[in-house]
Write a structure and sequence with these properties.
The protein is an all-alpha fold. Helices cover 88% and strands 0% of the residues.
């Protein structure tokens, strides 16, 4: 379930960012790390 949500976030952010896909991915990675730490 989490993977689906993460993919959805990634595609939405990529679509909004356009040229800044790499930057968007980096931001999402940071958010995912923070959420993973909260879940532990």
């Amino acid at each position: 379930m989490n993977k689906k949500i993460n993919s959805k976030m990634y595609f939405i952010t990529s679509a909004l960012s356009g040229k800044h896909v790499d930057e968007a991915f980096s931001k999402i990675a940071e958010v995912l790390v923070e959420r993973a730490e909260e879940m532990d």
